[in-house]
Description:
Strand content: 15-25%
Radius of gyration: 19 Å
Amino acid sequence: MPAPERIPPGGVTVLDLLTKGELTVEGQVREASNAVLYCSVAHEGETAVCVYKPVAGERPLWDFPDGTLAQREVAAYAVSEATGWGLVPPTVLRDGPYGEGMVQLWIDADEGAELLGLVDREEPGDGWKAVGTAQVAEDRTALLVHADTPELRRLAVLDAVINNGDRKGGHLLPAPGGRIYGIDHGVTFHVDDKLRTLLWGWAGEPLPVEAAGVLTRLDGELAPGAPLATRLAELLTPAEIDAIRARVALLRTTGRHPEPSGQWPAIPWPPV
Length: 272
């Protein structure tokens, strides 16, 4: 898959292609809990592969009564872009064959990259961070670990900002060249602490230096009338926007990765 910023060789940006292109449904991702359609999109001679999640195919969630999962996915992309890290594939909200929905550029994952693992020892080893023990058999446990990389750590910071309640292993897409994308952000931006993730390895540790600058920039972008705040107002409730401002402020104040609250399951289920 070409780099998400532009589909060569023409001058059509990916966002133009996703927003204005003709969507053709090619198949369905069957294992998803909501409707996820595998599509092609074409515009002015350019084509790409994408995912289309129509709002009509969403299962209602009792604890997310406002807005749609599609809106939250687009909001997560907007926040990701504001960080400058580019952690979420280009994502738009548009009409499609089955009504309004989220359309996101398809990313071909690097199947050889290892981001998560189970090891039969008490310490994670070099290049890995421990999450906790997992029951892998009736009489056997193993240590759940994730890779200790700057790219994955950026995603952990983003998840803390958007209050991601569902960071599973299958929602991590390693791309060629070491780049990492996060997908499936429908369960985000809740006003209560709902952070559930497999990336707890840095819990309680000081944030990396680069995160401080990113959080400062986000703080400014979330001010009333600022570009990010204006965009999020089209997708989220005022209370949810106030909550993201509060989370950014807390991260800046503590200067540390959050720890599990104890009031909500810390690990998503199923974890993949």
